[in-house]
């Protein structure tokens, strides 16, 4: 039997692209894989061993601005509207490019990042099946957990807490419908008819398969649709030419990483950590700028600053990590049992931080002034280290490769019988880790 043809579609952001590349690496023995993203992502795709298909060349600068606007977005309605407006202007062209790409590649299955729901329209118009992928599940609407993008809420307690969560879930749906109404002409041009299906589920997500590269045990919600699958973390990082950080024998090492977005925070955080490093005794602090492709390094005392530190090559050597609660580094630390201090900066990072704190798997820093004290607390906390080691065993019970191959194998017969071209699409979206989705949650 001929191999399946699978297209993976992702924005160029590492926190979205890398998990999909990890999925592709697990499936490449079963399928011919093509990865669609912006031209800037093509080197990372080639390094992973896949054929890349560049899209959005003319809009790449806007795509990058949406994720890195130079200021903190959080749930600021004006900034969110600016992001959303720029994003909507890109969608008609993106739809045309995706339709042309799928007509050429003839995929059996399209697996798309959750920030690109317009992929559904292009896939179904070309007779391909459409699956959704999320790096983590905190942005996914459920009937029994607080919604995302309210600063990192934990489940409300008692009647008043449950009422709060219910009202905020209702407000989230009202907010998304409001954005849809404002841009209704563009949505209809795209073939997107509404935010929600008659059963209340979001049209942004596939009605056939939703893949989450995380673990259910970390989430607050317990009620998910049957076709949503927690497959476990896929710790893929593209090969790096960056110089290896210096690890000093008889000393412990702290990694500080704030991801590849939020560049406007990094110099200030580096200065703060450089001051704190002198008070951490025998610890060496490695600060990563999160700039892949650059190899600059520098150090002053026990504070070392690198443009890039590869998680794949070096993360296992750290005793503690200070990170921004992005889903990628969060799950890699949990998989390795490394304690963390988290300082969320934007998007859904606050929701990830809430989950880590609730599970006793990280210390959440809410103010920069308390950063140094939180690091010292984490260094001294045996309970934190024990909890992280125990949770690493929970993650080890997941087998993403086997789960993915089973899902593909069990549905291979369905994949060979494609839905007819012109099948009505399953449109529109919720919140985004990057602010790049069609309907960003508040």
Protein described:
Helix content is 39%, strand content 14%. With 442 residues, it is of the alpha/beta class. It folds into two domains: 4-232 and 398-416, Glycogen Phosphorylase B (Rossmann fold), CATH 3.40.50.2000; 252-396, Glycogen Phosphorylase B (Rossmann fold, 3-Layer(aba) Sandwich). The protein has a seven-stranded parallel sheet with strand order 3-2-1-4-5-6-7, with helices on both faces. Strands 10-11-9-8-12-13-14 form a seven-stranded mixed sheet, with helices on both faces. Helix 3 (60-67) packs across helix 4 (77-105) and helix 4 (77-105) runs parallel beside helix 5 (119-125). The longest helix is centred in the first third of the chain and has 29 residues, at 77-105. It is globular. Mean pLDDT is 87; it is low at 415-442.
